[in-house]
Each structure stands twice: as C-alpha cells, then as structure tokens.
Amino acid sequence: MGNADGIMGDMYSAGTDTPASVYADFKAQVSISPLMSSATGFFNASGLGGSCPSWHIAGNKYWGMAGFDFGFFCADGMLALLTLAGYMVLALGAFRAFCIAIY
Hints:
Largest sheet: 2 strands, antiparallel
Order of helices and strands: HHEEH
Keywords: Membrane, Transmembrane, Transmembrane helix
Strand order of the largest sheet: 1-2
Mean pLDDT: 82
Shape: elongated
Transmembrane segments: 70-95
C-alpha cells in the first residue's frame, strides 16, 4: 500500500504468467478431467453408409397379390424434398428466434 508521503509501496508484483500460458494450463487440466475423458469419441460415427431403407408389404386378395413396395426414400426427388424441408425448418427457427429477440 502507499504511504501518506506519496511514495508507492509494493501493491503489485508482476508474475510470469501470460494469458496464453494460463489458457494452456487450463486446457491441459480440463482435458485430463474424467468428464472430458468420458466424452471423447462420444459423437464418432463409424460405418457411414448403408442401404436405402425400403420395405415390402405382402399382398392379399383385397389389395392385390403383388403387395406394396415402399422404396420412395431411394428416389432421386426425395433427397431434394428432404433438403427443402430442412431449409424450411431452419428458416422457421430463425424467424422465431428473431421474434423472440424483438419481444
């Protein structure tokens, strides 16, 4: 603390830490914590790929013996339709977020 005579005493002594070193130390401490070690690899997905989902309902005398094939998810236009639906949900969410931010 300073004295009444105007001469400053030792109020602060500078350390050797920098923001980068403090962050690096914090990151190292967090990365070895049990929470982070258990969450590592949680969202990894293996085997991306596979076949297109389709199924068949066997026929009978009421709707024809050939039955029904449901393979419309494999059609070319279905990907465009699902992409459009995703963009519509994204736009609706952005609009609602804007409305919430205004009010």
